[in-house]
Amino acid sequence: MPLAFLICLRSGSRKNHDKRNWSRLQRGNIIEKSSDASLLKERNGSGVIMPTTMDNLKIAFAGESQANQKYRAFAKKAEQDGFPNVGRLFRTAAEAERIHAEGHLKALDEICGTAENLQAAIHGETYESQEMYPPMLERATTEDHKAKRMFGYAVEAEAVHARLYAMALEAVETGKDLNVEFYLCPVCGNIEVGKPTEPCRICGTKPDKFILVS
Asked: Exposed end of the chain (fewer CB within 10 Å): N or C?
């Protein structure tokens, strides 16, 4: 837990010898502050730390984002099973969750200018390819778990994404847009600039299976 101090709102309170001040808010709640406003915590009368709105936004954004992807996958399965209208329901609900997630992201002030967004994307993709996925892949391989297949694809694909974002950032910083077409591998998530003529470098998918993203 970060070093924190407690602000006392009760009149006539005594100074603490450990250099912390205590405060009790209405209904017996205590606010715990740190130098980072986003780390503000609230304790209820039972001493349980309550999440802040910023905490709640992060939790809600993660939950809605996962629901969006899950319902899209459920929609595909429903259609494959012969229930097209159920599939449409899942797709509609997925879009609703996207709306919620985007609203939460805006409230978190994490949608910035395009250059800043690209820098954030580069950081995220680099972290995933270099730090997050490698140990996951190693563990799944050790356990011979089926997850090793997509973990392996992701390690390489995220690195490709980071390079493409860096290319885009270079263009944006000079005030230019990209003048290229992007083709997506539907198996591993690899992205090629321009129509591919060779099998996917990551998973071997045939070039004619790549999807042009409009």
From this structure: C
Strands, sheet with 30-33, edge to edge from the N-terminal-most edge strand: 5-6, 30-33, 41-43, 49-50
The answer to whether residues 161 and 127 belong to one domain is yes
Across-strand partners of 42?
31, 50
Beta bridge partners, 192, equal 183
Give yes or no: residues 116 and 162 share one domain: yes
Same domain, 59 and 100: yes
Which DSSP symbol is given to 198? S
85 token code pair: 């209208």
CATH at 95: 1.20.1260.10
3 state DSSP class of 211: strand
Q: What is the mean pLDDT of each run of 10 residues along the chain (214 residues)?
A: 34 38 34 42 67 96 98 98 98 98 98 98 98 98 98 98 98 97 98 98 98 96
- Segments forming the whole domain that contains residue 146: 112-178
8 Å CB contact between 152 and 200: no
Q: How many domains does the chain have?
A: 4
